[in-house]
Fold these 3 entries.
Entry 1:
Amino acid sequence: MSHVVKHFLRTKDAYPRKKTYPNLKEYLHIFANNDIIIFMDKKEIFRMHADFCKFMGHPKRIEILFLLGKKEMRVEDIAGKMKIKIPNVSQHLAIMRQRNVLEIRRDGVKIYYRIANQEILEACVIMRDLMIAQLKNKMNIIRKI
């Protein structure tokens, strides 16, 4: 990872206080845990954000995300619900796992997929709700014409 500077902060407090670093204004700092602060260039954060969001670049992946929001599922179950072929679903699942959007659980030879963090689904719901609100707004404008 480029432009990353690790600064180790050892403290006796249970919760370290936020420190300011005037010479690092162009950096965004993130608390990794109580002992380490990671400074990262803001442009790197934007690049990582865009890379993470690439999983949403296909409607099938968004559909998979909403299916897995209800329960964990096997690739065969997802393919059946979506009415598409298993290899196609597997490709989408692989991309989503690479982005850490999904996790797996093994039960013998069966592999179950689930959302790694429910906040990912919540963010997608918010984006969908905004999109629907924009469509409603456009429809209201058209009706007024």
Note: Helices lie at 42-53, 59-68, 75-82, 86-98, 118-144.
Entry 2:
Amino acid sequence: MQFDAIRRQFSEPPPPHPPAQVSWGSWTLVGGVLAGPPAVARAVDGRDMVFARQADGGVYYARQRWDAPLATGASNGTKFSEWVPLAGAFAAGPAVVAKSSGLLEVLAQGVDRQMYHAAQADVDGKVAFGPFQPMGGRTKQFAC
């Protein structure tokens, strides 16, 4: 099964407070060949991040960019970075959650049926993901 990552968003970058009237922009192709549905979360810097398991079984992310030139007719925030690998070999997922600090944590099921997580950390003002770590135990497979 193949999915294309697409996203629909507000027509302008998010304001500091909810606007009185909201309108949606057009669908934007994020790209990539995905092996399952994507997960999306808002990062600590206010940009959306899309996470997906791609055809090679690895988990990747694409970060929303604010540098799209308005002269092209695209509003800021309608472009995404290239897919960045987080590494690993996964059979299911990912899921992503924003922690109370605003930093993100990604969870996915490995091909060995273990659950893994990778968390963002802020080290000297630079936010980056650490490696996937096993959470212990194995998931069960149930007959449908």
Note: Residues 6-15+28-134 form one domain.
Entry 3:
Amino acid sequence: MKANTLGVDQPTVPLVYAVLNVATVVAGLPSGLLADRIGKDKVLIGTFGLFALSTVASILTTSGVVLAFGIAFIYGLYLGTSDTVQRAVIPSLTAGELKGTAYALYYLLLGACSLVANFFVRHLMGPNFFERSFFLQPRNISCCSRGSDRSHHFVE
């Protein structure tokens, strides 16, 4: 939807989405290698920087087809890196025999929170949902990063 507001015509929107998906795939392996080399926490912090950059760019940009592709690429890098590194952190937070349980809890909480958040935000935002949603993203990431400080040993 943001691509449309930036001037991307409807037939070209799937190409913006394709750029996002390509960036997600491209980011996976290098982010895992980087996390092994310099540490998962450092890469995860950098990932939140990519998210902040894509969010700020989405908020500040009012028109530009090229910018839509750039924002999609940056957001795709965020998705690919965060998915890889967050999953890599889970085993380091749990005892050996409970790793499967930790993954199950992670996906249960992720799915439940996404469902509740999407339902709540959709009804909260009303007709201008897509335009306003970019303003909530920095707050959400801030809350998530503060909450992760307390959850380093959620399964032992």
Note: Helices lie at 2-5, 13-38, 40-60, 65-89, 99-125, 129-149.
